[in-house]
Design a protein that fits this description.
Layout: H1 9-17, H2 23-34, E1 43-46, H3 52-60, E2 65-69, E3 79-83, H4 89-99, E4 102-107, H5 117-138, E5 139-150, H6 155-163, E6 166-172, E7 183-191
Parallel strand pairs: 1-2, 1-4, 2-3, 4-5
Antiparallel strand pairs: 5-7, 6-7
Helix pairs in contact: 2-3, 5-6
Length: 193
């Protein structure tokens, strides 16, 4: 649960409250502001390791929750996990087989950052586009989508792509993000289908 940024107040709070990372509070903020998850929704969390969003999701819905990540995720009661690549058609099919049409897709994933801003921005946008493609292939009509991105020159194009598939698209910054971060979330509701 550590990071290169050290143990700030939010990190310590997450550890104290039993969350696997500070990211749990980001999803709680998004849910409070936008209400993207309903009590009976089926939810897929892409890039789910270490599992803090999965911990939160299980408190928000009684529906099935699946986490997908390249790395194994420690067991969580009531959550299924898939070790695999979100770009793999077999993973997409497995999610469809397990859930049928999905209500919500969320993604807090980010590539390992190199420190080269333009390179890192291109990599996060590529990951965002892959997550959008995954969401569009499994979401039911009217479903919701939330994804972490970073502000930069490629962001407006990504935002426009999301708007092609959802009736309502907004951005939000979370208070739990680190100071000085360019991180922001795209919250898209009501999938066109």
């Amino acid at each position: 649960m550590g990071s290169q940024w050290g143990a700030d107040r939010t990190y310590l709070r997450a550890k104290h409250e039993g969350y696997r990372s500070r990211a749990a509070y980001k999803l709680l903020e998004i849910q409070k502001k936008f209400g993207i998850i309903r009590v009976d929704d089926t939810v897929v969390d892409l890039g789910a390791a270490p599992g803090s969003w999965l911990q939160v999701l299980k408190t928000l819905t009684e529906g099935k929750v699946i986490g997908v990540d390249l790395n194994p995720i420690a067991d969580l009661e009531g959550v299924e996990t898939i070790v695999g690549d979100l770009n793999d058609p077999a993973v997409v099919q497995l999610v469809r087989d397990l859930l049928g049409p999905v209500s919500v897709v969320v993604c807090d994933a980010a590539p390992k950052l190199s420190g080269h801003k333009s390179y890192d921005q291109a990599r996060i946008i590529e990951l965002n586009e892959q997550a959008l493609k995954f969401a569009c292939s499994v979401l039911k009509q009217g479903g919701n989508f939330a994804i972490k991105s970073f502000q930069g020159t490629d962001f407006p194009e990504l935002y426009a792509k999301v708007k092609e598939h959802f009736y309502s698209v907004k951005t939000c910054n979370t208070q739990s993000s680190r100071k000085g971060s360019t991180e922001l979330y795209i919250v898209a509701k009501n999938f066109v289908g």
